[in-house]
Specification:
The structure is a homodimer.
Chain A lengths: L2 E7 L3 H15 L4 E4 L3 H8 L5 H7 L4 E6 L17 H12 L1 E9 L12 H4 L3 E7 L11 E3 L2 E9 H17 L3 E6 L5 H17 L4 E6 H10 L6 E4 L1 H12 L9 E6 L3 E5 L16 H14 L3 H17 L11 H13 L2
The structure holds 3-isopropylmalic acid (2 copies).
One 3-isopropylmalic acid sits at the interface of chains B and A.
Enzyme class (chains A, B): oxidoreductase
Cofactor (chains A, B): Mn(2+); Mg(2+)
InterPro entries (chains A, B): IsoCit/isopropylmalate_DH_CS (IPR019818), IsoPropMal-DH-like_dom (IPR024084), Isopropylmalate_DH (IPR004429)
């Protein structure tokens, strides 16, 4: 019996995770679901944003469903030393699970083009998959310190790190339109020069059917807004991926529609990309679509149950039309939207 | 008599620089203008993208007007070792001039909202100034190498580097709407923690009239597209500034409309932000508006001649309506557009 760990976290995390769990129980009733702490609430309880009981629980998990972590800008958590802050719990979790490839589908739902900040003719039909390297670059290790008046961070990549995430991108492109754009800053950074070299060599060795091109990160930031349909799969390093995947996420018009999957060698991590939205936490009005779609990605990539995943995707698409939430210009609250998903599932 | 050095560079650089020089001679006939080599053409002539004769000429210059550098993706220049490539000439030039603050105004011209990839109601009235730190961070110095299977770059900032560029942002905000958004990734990077600390301290010490807030780079990448009017002045480090300023530059709808100024302790550097566009180089169809507007910034910031600068801005705005170039949906070529600017100047 597969075991899923849920980590609802902070802010609206518990509300949207509860909705996703309700849906999971419906389409995968045989799965065991166990809840644990992460982020600010974990710090408040255990003095650690990624506490030992949570670490232990992950050992025999098949997949992890995360809510959101972190508080408001002026939250007391932000006054803690960096390693005790909620976000550090998230970074430590990614590392513990070995999730090196963060997958973020960016799809404009037909009929919902009007939600996009882009002109509808640019938004229509956009279907991009961003693959972000999640365990390397300037985020982890290396020399990092503030030393009086000087601060340092180190950006670092190794060939095996580049190859394993590029493999995920090539594999995903094979299921899609067969095109990968690798993003770097090779005109300035040695790290990007290695990245470009290794991605190219891997394609030449093992993925000759894939069309690969390389673009600079500043140019992609422009083109993803002015001509988003040119992209199929985008693969890039951690920091560029952080920026570009959030940027691309605005195209569909609401972060409430954006799920993600982080894959590695062990259990995968699935989470909505929106933040903890402390301003609306506890009000029961958060859009749970992204959390529910993340549960869909969990079934697809984590438990290899594509049928159940497709069921969820169809039910969410119906519910978005029937009961749009406030971020989509509708009036449905979390419960109402979730009920709409449930009834679409039951009648399917 | 003020002395200006022009560095037309590669691709369409010479064409748009020639147009800007024509305009400069009209509004500032007393200025001496001297042309030198940079980028790929400088490598081809001297084996160095920033050759000694150019370095020497800068010594007594009051301002520098740059065209564009670099070739096509598959250009032979890109096969050279990094320090000989055209872009390295540009980086070396910035360093030699000590230009630490790159100013990029992003303004949607009234009546030209339809050019924006954003919905017109979002594009209307956007008026942002991006101040990018240009001599530090991961771009220069520090440990940087490829060592077999591992590559490194070092991101580094010091308090004096942060303060001098923040000062430019606060000063600019005083002439504008009094608001500065400082952009970092302080939830992950020590360098950003120093950045945030030093920007805040400087505001508290010397610019109490300015409203300062801090935002994460991934969040700004979203908000600059979904809600651009929230920003007045944005200040950020080199790499984030590279990405965000290019991103913001798409809002007005054509890179052909975007000038820039790089200021420091000596002569300033003024350049259009578009690339060398090798595909249209030599055809006489490039839009010279950004180069001409950069000449305007040169007069304003470099030679302290605001009246001449205003004259240019007004003439360009008229010419954009009378003779739009191809990138703006019109038919005017470089010459025709430049003539429209000249006649607007003469009749003003
Ligand atoms: C909270 C932060 C550390 C995190 C990151 O930068 O990875 C977030 O922005 C994300 O993208 O999940
Ligand atoms: C060509 C490149 C080195 C340069 C940079 O990254 O600074 C360019 O993108 C720019 O913004 O002027």
């Amino acid at each position: 019996m597969p075991k899923i760990i849920t980590l609802p976290g902070d802010g609206i995390g518990p509300e949207v995770t509860a909705a996703a769990v309700q849906v999971l129980r419906e389409v995968a009733p045989d799965v065991t679901i166990e809840e644990h702490l992460i982020g600010g609430v974990a710090y408040d309880t255990h003095g650690d944003p990624f506490p030992q009981p949570t670490r232990d629980a992950l050992k025999d998990a098949d997949a992890v469903l995360l809510g959101t972590v972190g508080g408001a800008q002026d939250s007391a958590w932000n006054l803690l030393p960096r390693h005790l802050r909620p976000e550090s719990g998230l970074l430590a979790l990614r590392k513990a699970l070995g999730c090196y490839a963060n997958l973020r589908p960016v799809r404009v739902q037909p009929g919902l083009e009007h939600l996009s900040p882009l002109k509808p003719e640019l938004a229509r039909g956009v279907d991009i998959l961003i693959v972000r390297e999640l365990l390397g670059g300037v985020y982890f290790d290396g020399d990092r310190k503030i030393d009086g008046d000087t601060a340092y961070n180190t950006m670092r990549y190794t060939t095996p790190e580049v190859e394993r995430v590029a493999r995920v991108a090539f594999w995903a492109a094979e299921q899609r339109r067969g095109r990968v754009t690798s993003v770097d800053k090779a005109n300035v950074l040695e790290v990007s020069e290695l990245w470009r070299r290794d991605v190219t060599a891997l394609r030449d060795r093992e993925y000759r059917g894939i069309h690969l091109n390389h673009e600079y990160v500043d140019s992609v930031a422009m083109l993803i807004v002015s001509d988003p349909s040119r992209y199929d799969v985008i693969v890039t390093e951690n920091l560029f991926g952080d920026i570009l995947s959030d940027l691309a996420a605005v195209i569909p018009g609401s972060l409430g529609l954006m799920p993600s999957a982080s894959l590695g060698d062990g259990a995968g991590l699935f989470e909505p990309i929106h933040g903890s939205a402390p301003d609306i936490a506890g009000k029961g009005i958060a859009n749970p679509a992204a959390a529910i779609m993340s549960a869909g990605m969990l079934l697809r990539h984590g438990l290899k149950r594509p049928d159940a995943a497709n069921q969820i995707d169809r039910a969410v698409a119906l519910a978005l039309r029937a009961q749009p939430t406030r971020d989509l210009g509708g009036a449905a609250d979390t419960q109402t939207f979730t009920r709409a998903v449930m009834s679409a599932l039951e009648s399917s």
